[in-house]
Design goal:
This protein has two domains: 5-73, no CATH class; 87-314, MetI-like fold (Orthogonal Bundle). 65% of the residues lie in helices and 7% in strands. It is built from 13 helices and five strands. The protein has a three-stranded antiparallel β-sheet. Strand 2 and strand 3 form a beta hairpin. The chain is globular, with a radius of gyration of 25 Å.
Length: 321
Amino acid sequence: MPADPAKIKLGDHATIADLERERERMNLNDPLYKRYFYYLNDLSFISVHSDEELKKYKYFTLFSAKSYKLVLKKPYLDKSFKDDRLVSEKIWEAFPNTLILAISSIILAVIIGIPIGVTCAIKKDHFIDRFFSTTSILGMSLPSFFSAILIMWIFAYKLNWLTNLNVIGSLYEVDDLGRGERLSLKNLILPAITLGIRPIAVIVNLTRNSLLESLSSGYVTVAKAKGLSEFNIVVKHALRNSLIPVLTTTSGWFASMLSGAVFVEYIFGWNGIGKLLVDSLENIDIPLAMGLIILIGVCFVFINILVDLMYSILDPRIKID
C-alpha cells in the first residue's frame, strides 16, 4: 500500500502541485493527533467547524462564535477515492442487502437449529443424537469460503437444470430487456444457506447441551413429580431457561453476519457491505474501508446492548439496573 493517501486518490500521473493541494485538503501535513481529532470531529453528531469547512456538510447551527460554529450534523465519513462519492452513500446502498441476507440466514439457523437441538436432548445417546451431534461438529469446522464454493458448484452449476439458480447474483438484477432493475429473490437462497450452516451447527450443539443441563435441575424434578407432561416440562420450563446461552451465541453470529459476510458475499457476487469491503481493499480506498469498519463496530455494540435487554425477558431473575 502506498504511504501517501493523496497519491492513492489522484493516481501516479498527478503533479507535485496537485499532490500538495490534496495533502493540505486532507490535513496530511498536520501531526497524527490532530488528524485523529479531525476524524473524530467529522464522526461526531455535534462538532465544531470553521465556516470554510462547513461547506461540505448539511448541518444545524447550535452556537456561533467568530469564524467557528458548533453544529448538529450527520457523521461525515469523507469521500471515496475511487469515484469521489460520499462514503456514507455507498455504505447505505449496500447495507440493506447485507441486512436482508443476515436476517434470512439467522432465521433459517434458528428455525432449523433449535428443534434439532431439542430433539437431540430428548433422544440423548440415540442414533438421532449421535448423527446430528457429529454433523454439527462438521458444520462448525467448515470454512465459509469452502462451503460457498461447494454449494455454488453443486446447486448452481451441476444442478442448474433442476434448481435454476444463478452462480452469482444480488438481490436486484438489471433486466435484459432494458426495463431497469428487478427483484430476484432466488439469488438469496444459496448465500443464506451457506451463511447459515455454521450458526445452525452451533445452535444445535448449544441447545442440546443447555437443555440437558436444565432437564437435570431440581425444578424439572419437581415438575415431573407433579405429573406434568414431558412436552410441558421441556417447552414451558426447561427450554426457556436454556435459550439464554443460545440467544447470546445467536446474537454474536447475527452481528458477524450483519457486519458483512465477506467470503460469502464476494463469492456469490452479493452486493452487500462484505463485498464492498473487499472492493475497497482491492482499490486501496481508505475512507471507504474505514467507514465500513466503523459500521461493523457499531453493529456489534448495538446488538450486544439489545441482547442484554432481552435477557430480562427470557429470565425474570436477571435484572437490569
